[in-house]
Amino acid sequence: MKIDHLVINVDKFIQEDKELINSIHSIGLPYKPRWGKGTKGFKVSNIWIGKEYFELVRIKAKDGGGWIKDWTTKYLDGHRGLIGFALEVNDIEETYQQLLSQNVNVSPPEPLTFRWFFNLLTKTMPWRNLYLPEFKGVPFQFFLQQLNDEKSKTYMEQYMVPNSRDNAIEGITEVNIYGKLTEGDKKVLYALFEDYEESKDLLKINLGAQTIRFITSNTYRVEVVLKCNNKDYSNKKINIHNLQIQNS
């Protein structure tokens, strides 16, 4: 299991304001918000970080144009920032059964499908997603993803451009989530992750070279730390709503 991408609800200016786009470029992150998938109801723009990425989502119509229904509703109700946290797994069916056996209410693995070109065409993405319950203490949820096969993975990776690896920024190493988890939230985490450490105000999840931390705080915010091997961009940061991206 590894961090794959973070889905972030954003306002229009995040995708269109030249000053903001330039400030993202200034920390070494290539960003072309006009690129990316979308319909008349939603617009996605990506920031590619090696093989991981940020998926910035703006809802343009009340029906969401085929975007995930619950996330569309939350967006229209004012939610901004991290909404979905994607983890890549090797066997999504096996993980699904394991979660069910621990009484976690998860959706069955299904492909993401949306209609486009005036609802005349249907596009099905070459992966399946499984959604875990929404957290009660912090406003996002984990979901699991598995590409259909290696051919699909190679196909998708060719579209991960422009990429920050060209600036020696190579991937996501840490995600630190500040807020207050409920006991029910923790039970989901215990079922999902095998390698974790817990103390009074910290729940640390180890994913090989990546780490997720839940840090008890009265104020909710998210920090994402990137592996940066370029001194010109080291320690630079940018805020997108209540999410901070920082180079290590």
UniProtKB/TrEMBL annotation:
One Pfam match: Glyoxalase_3
Gene3D superfamilies, per the entry: 2,3-Dihydroxybiphenyl 1,2-Dioxygenase, domain 1
Domain Glyoxalase-like: 3-152
Protein's name in the database: VOC family protein
